Input
Amino acid sequence: MKILLAGYNLDYDLIRALKNKSGLQQDLTPETISAAYARISRSPRPVNELREISRDEVDKARQSNRNIVFEMGHSSVAEHAVFNIDVIGVSRLLVEEIEKFRLCSFTEKSQRYVLFNKDFVIPEELKLANLTDLFTDTVQTQNDYYHALYEKLRPYIFDQHKTLAENPANKSLLEGWAKEDARYAISLATQTQLGMTINARNLELILRRLAAHPLAEAKDYSGKLYSVTKDIAPSLIRYTQATDYDKFTRQNLRSQASDLLQKFSFSSKKLSDVQLTSFTSTADNRIAAALLFSSSDINYSQCLSMAGKMTPLEKRTLFKTAFENLQAHDSVLREMENVDLQFELILSSSCFAQLKRHRISTIIAQDYNPQLGVTMPPSIKSIGQQKDFMDIMRQTQNAYEQIQKKAPFAAAYVLTNAHRKRVLMKFNAREMYHLARLRADQHAQWDIRDLTIKMLKNAQKVMPLTLMMACGKDNFPDLFKKTFPVNGSGTIKKTK
Output
């Protein structure tokens, strides 16, 4: 066995400085790695030799990439070329569009830990509609209230957690709790920044999709992203223009849905914020069958039949065997991916900003809808700020309604982190474990923690054995001790 380091990402300013210092004329591009790896399947040479050939013949490497990726259709070759991108001065609203691309990595400036200044994006649509004054006045009022609210929340948080406050090391933690509640008052136009790691295949996709987006900011982002990457790997990034599919499909669906809605009437019954809308039937049996399948040599149909005939005790014992060596940070077995859950959620922008990070799921979100109300942090009520908070929300609502008439796609910019939307979210039971461990934990932000706990309770009703060890990390030791009690000798008691 031989393991060779083929490369790793370097800061681009360093790459440029080293190239200038060395006087090297050759292009420094990740395309050579893509070309070398593409040749692995058809060449007897060792891969390190293939990389050397690609480095020496960059033009040939690029032509090879074009042939393999675009002529033969082997797009996965482009995934070997990876970029690190700084994204600065974009709105929170645009970040939601950027982070829809699940096979990329993002780290965003957090409104939970950073006290934001008063910078915000003014959408081009509002300038064209002569709504800039209305928009900026509203957002500036929100921002002023955000800073005033933080100053009121900070002493309250310290007073509520006096023991923690005694230790100076906890200062930033407690201030963070004040920041994360104050942020419910600021808009989706608030400027932020993020770091993005993306391979060339997904880079091309994000360029194309955002070029077709109705928001001017999204189009601008696509153009700027293309301009900083096009010369680095031209052989891997070709189809970057908006397509009719991306431009018109959503638009046409909205139009048809609007026509259909006029034919039907619905009651205005208030629904729960968390609804389990569908799930895999007999989920525990299916997971039991998957566990038997991976641990035997019989077919799945036979395993499913066995699972259906097992006694409740036999089935529980099988699941406990799968979990008895589990630790708080272990991923549960992949067999848990064989059953699904679908939830309809009504949640704040602040909560959605965290939920969308769980990209091994299917998330379909509606537009923000002020008719769904707002989420007010309990701490704001506790300090007697609910009236002032709701006054800001009413002013925001008024601005939103005026903007929507002239620039409907840009109206959401003026809404706040407190405003809500509907989300349809589907994921498997293994992802439910991951979501619960991170978001049902005591260290999680209260909004998403409350949401996740409700989701988990609903899910455990329909697949109790599958999710028997699902909980926040902080609760795992107690749950494990309850599920696997030890006897006097210190070993786990066997189920009778």
Observations:
- The longest helix spans residues 132-160.
